[in-house]
Task: inverse folding
């Protein structure tokens, strides 16, 4: 099969890339390994992690359309109360982590709506569930990618396109195509980063997590005791301050050992939730932290319980990386086993506020995550392989401690904006949280240009960041922005007969491309407001 643009990976970056190229008139092949498009927003079941100004500015127009579409979907199809229906910035889950917490399936529906006209016209072909198995190259160009069916590995399809975008969760095309890349922690000598170690640690990567959804209803819904439950119940990381399976864990910003509460179905007012990470990280009561359905947003009786999404400290699996290791599938299975063990512990042994133990009414909601085994379809991958790029974003480009009142570095080749603290979860090298204040930052085009390969572009978390700055660039709106720009860049290069490298290196081409981005609703700079 052949198209103008091949997008391998149907997560947020992949969908954004496909949409951008399709809207520009290109034909696109989009592949995805899991049953749902949308990646961390859907198959990984992670509610959006966004900055505090998301309702006003700081995201692309198409990402804003996705958010609006999710709210409109609830208004069209869900039995909202009149009060919640009239809530302009509707937060269906009233979760504290984000101003828009919602059930993953709603995002799937909206993404499919956005893609539907291009499927109908025949300009978009979606191969699902397919994963890349090999790539062919001619010098510095990728000439083809072979994908295999996830469940029938002998079913192969050969794909070709002038431009190939790697939007996979782990940068899977990079080793297949021989693209130079980095993993794990770079050394302080190579990056100059205050938070980097003296020597590089390529196998030191952030934890992965297998999320799951829960409600709390009458009855005993305790799952079977997991096979390795005893191991995880007794597991006590050196830096954790208690067993991993407990309500106690390090505070990400201070590393002080804190105890969080857990109270299912508090009778709180959804409209009173102010999900602003500047004011409150929101994780005091884990139930409301990533809640994705607040029953009081809906008419009486519609929901027997809130639904909460478990992406909490105790499900972080940092025993081993799952990238560039021979037993990655085993470790992913152990990450799932950890999540089951956390659930079983909550159902049977977790301390309750009344002095008792266990919450047997907790019910696994695999129907919400679309998975037969009850957990999210896919693991939440925080850190990918990253291209060796023309420009690598480093900590001192955006660290609030380094930049202060100067703000983040402004790049002449900016192709978008983002904002999130440098937020690194415990890692496979034994590191605790690394959580550093960040300035609102820009995304440089140079971070999307491989040092050698000419027609492969990263379209997700595999851009030229470091282990440290990945902590800011890995979140939902930035991944979408990167993917959207990769799709627009492929179209621009096809139209002009130029390479991505030439676009960055030629002032006239760069200015024209940035104008194209602005016209498409991509913000290149953070606003500076002045009186008049």
Result:
């Amino acid at each position: 099969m052949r198209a103008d643009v091949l997008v391998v990976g149907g997560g947020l970056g992949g969908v954004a890339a496909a949409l951008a190229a399709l809207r520009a008139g290109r034909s696109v092949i989009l592949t995805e390994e899991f049953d749902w498009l949308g990646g961390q927003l859907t198959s990984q079941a992670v509610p959006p992690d966004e900055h505090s100004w998301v309702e006003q500015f700081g995201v692309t127009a198409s990402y804003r359309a996705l958010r609006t579409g999710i709210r409109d979907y609830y208004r069209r199809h869900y039995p909202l109360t009149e009060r919640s229906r009239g809530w302009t910035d509707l937060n269906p889950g009233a979760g504290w982590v984000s101003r828009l917490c919602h059930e993953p399936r709603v995002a799937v529906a909206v993404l499919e709506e956005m893609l539907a006209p291009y499927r109908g016209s025949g300009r978009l072909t979606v191969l699902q569930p397919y994963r890349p198995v090999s790539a062919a190259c001619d010098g510095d160009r990728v000439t083809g990618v072979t994908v295999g069916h996830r469940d029938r590995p002998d079913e192969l399809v050969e794909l070709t396109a002038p431009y190939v975008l790697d939007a996979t969760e782990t940068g899977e095309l990079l080793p297949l195509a021989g693209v130079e890349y980095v993993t794990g922690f770079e050394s302080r000598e190579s990056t100059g980063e205050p938070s980097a170690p003296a020597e590089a640690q390529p196998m030191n990567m952030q934890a992965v997590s297998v999320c799951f959804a829960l409600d709390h209803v009458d009855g005993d819904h305790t799952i079977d005791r997991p096979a390795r439950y005893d191991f995880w119940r007794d597991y006590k990381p050196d830096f954790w301050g208690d067993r991993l399976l407990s309500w106690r864990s390090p505070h990400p910003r201070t590393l002080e050992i804190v105890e969080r509460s857990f109270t299912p179905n508090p009778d709180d007012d959804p409209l009173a939730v102010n999900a602003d990470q500047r004011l409150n990280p929101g994780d005091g009561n884990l139930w409301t932290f990533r809640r994705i359905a607040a029953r009081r947003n809906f008419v009486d009786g519609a929901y027997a319980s809130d639904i909460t999404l478990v992406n909490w400290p105790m499900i972080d699996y940092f025993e081993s990386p799952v990238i560039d290791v021979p037993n990655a599938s085993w470790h992913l299975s152990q990450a799932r086993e950890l999540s089951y063990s956390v659930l079983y512990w909550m159902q049977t042994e977790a301390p309750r506020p009344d002095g008792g133990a266990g919450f047997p009414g907790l019910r696994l909601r695999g129907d919400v995550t679309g998975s037969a085994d009850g957990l999210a379809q896919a693991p939440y991958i925080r850190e990918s392989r990253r291209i060796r790029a023309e420009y690598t974003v480093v900590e001192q480009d955006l660290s609030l401690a380094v930049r202060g009142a100067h703000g983040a570095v402004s790049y002449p080749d900016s192709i978008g904006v983002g904002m999130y603290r440098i937020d690194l979860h415990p890692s496979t090298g034994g590191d605790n949280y690394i959580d550093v204040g960040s300035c609102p930052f820009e995304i440089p085009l140079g971070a999307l240009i491989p040092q050698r390969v000419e027609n492969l572009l990263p379209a997700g978390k595999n851009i030229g960041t470091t282990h440290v700055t990945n902590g800011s660039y890995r979140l939902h709106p930035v991944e979408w922005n990167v993917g959207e720009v990769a799709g627009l860049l492929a179209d621009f290069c096809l139209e002009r007969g130029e390479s991505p490298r030439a676009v960055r290196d030629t002032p006239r081409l760069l200015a024209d491309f940035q104008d194209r981005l602005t016209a498409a609703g991509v913000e290149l700079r953070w606003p500076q407001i002045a009186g008049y």
